[in-house]
Amino acid sequence: MELVCRLTLAFSLALFVGATNAVNPGFVVRLTQKGLDYARQEGMSVLQQELSKIHLPDFSGSTKKQHIKFKYSFNSMVIRSFQLPTSQISLVPNVGLKLSISGAFIQVDGKWKVHSKILSGKGNFDLKVEGLSISVGLQLGSDASGRPTISPSDCSCHISDVKIHVSGKFSWLVDVFHKSIDNALRKDIEGKICPVVTQSISSKLQPLLQTLPVTAKIDSVAAIDYSLTGPPPVTAQSLDVQLKGEFFNIAHRTPPPFSPPTLSLPADPGLMVYFGVSDYLFNTAGFVYQSAGKIESYITDDMIPKNFSVHLNTSSFGILIPMLSKMYPNMLMKLKISTPSAPFLTIEPGNLTTSPIMEIQAYVILPNSTLAPLFLLNLTTTIMVKVSVNSGRIVGDLELSRIEMELVHSDIGPFSVGVLNTAVNYYISSILLPEVNEILQRGYPLPLLDHIQLTDVIIKPSEHFLLFGANVQYG
């Protein structure tokens, strides 16, 4: 059913993504300090692996001691362990993030060789780098396509202490010039850490952010624009990623005749991530499909269960409207359901409703298969909307709460619409909405980065927006 597909999109997908030329975002993703700490933990394991791959080149030098010139070399150096026990990520208001690592230490194995005119020696050594600290500034932004970007703005590294232990013949010689060796190793290691850190950000983290799509094609009619409206705002408590959030017509994009309201997410640090979903999203979906003439459907007699008392034929309806069976005896009927205006979602604290105005045009199917108009009804409805999240997908359910009917026009003479109340209620609640709900239960994905799963999901309808909160698992 055409209407089923369109209503499904209007009642579900629009709840997540949808605002070109909008001053306010239609969709906000908020990362709390708890969420950033989780991301830091996941990132530290990756960074530790990358730092462990640092290649330390051979180095050599010479020094004099008591007029004797010694030449030394250190080679075959391999990092056996690189530990990052303590790290912290901080929000820097109006700038981005600051990653701080302290108390890190490195263990290195290698070979040494010393030579002079009077003696020479060689052996193995192990090196311990202690009190390593790293500080990295992370600048957040958005690229021309509307995807988020992250880049290192600064990086510094400092080593507090270097300890070396040597073994082999004449190993005591190393103690003669250990200060030169310590300084050389310290300088070499410090010079290699920041390039690895910045490269890891560019090669590991930035590609992950690029997995956020900026346009999602829904069908041949509509697509969703959820590109960033600009660089993510950062406060001392949270980081907000603001998305445009707007459905648009693929063939002809027209700005909706309304704007998104201001989203004011509550300051709740209890979960890792929060999604603020404006009611503007639904309304742009309804606007697009209504403008394209796609929110309509037909109900025929073969769609009605045999045990229901009022079937779509003139015999059944003739009991309610006697004139109908006299004018068109023993003929099948057909109902066209459409909406003269776009459906509008209202989100209030604790409540989601939509009150679409529907029109039902009744036809009789003549023996030559043409349609003859019978009457036109105007329906004012209230539909309760329930949503939940399952495996990172939004699922929904619609329930008819209220329906009022008005006879707009009749080709079979006047009659009281009250006699049709039972039949119309049944057609809407038991035929149309179950078809929509079946599709809604399949769910539609939230705009998540690759490999992200949500847990401990809470849902809270607020004024003009729907608040989703969740913890995150990556993997």
Q: Which outline best applies?
A: rod-shaped
| Cα distance spanning the termini | 38 Å
**What's the CATH topology name of the largest domain?**
Bactericidal permeability-increasing protein, domain 2
Assembly of the depicted chains: single chain
Integer-rounded radius of gyration: 35 Å
Tell me the name of the CATH class of the largest domain: Alpha Beta
CATH homologous superfamily heading of the largest domain: Bactericidal permeability-increasing protein, domain 2
Largest sheet: 8 strands, antiparallel
Strand segment count:
22
At CATH level 2, the architecture of the largest domain is Super Roll
Poorly predicted sequence stretches spanning 5 or more consecutive residues: 1-22
Fraction of residues in H or I helices: 10-25%
- Element order: H for helix, E for strand: HEHEEEEEEHHEEEEEHEHHEEEEEEHEEE
Structural class: alpha+beta
Describe the fold and architecture.
- The protein is an alpha+beta fold.
- It has two domains: 2-26 and 213-474, Bactericidal permeability-increasing protein, domain 2; 36-209, Super Roll (Bactericidal permeability-increasing protein, domain 1), CATH 3.15.10.
- Strand 6 (120-142) and strand 7 (148-168) form a beta hairpin.
- Helix 1 (2-11) runs antiparallel to helix 5, helix 1 crosses helix 8 (421-440) and helix 2 crosses helix 4.
- Strands 13, 14, 15, 16, 17, 18, 19 and 20 form an eight-stranded antiparallel beta sheet that branches.
- The model is unreliable at 1-22 (pLDDT under 50).
- Helices cover 24% and strands 45% of the residues.
- Belongs to the BPI/LBP/Plunc superfamily. BPI/LBP family.
- Residues 1-22 form the signal peptide.
- It is found in: Secreted.
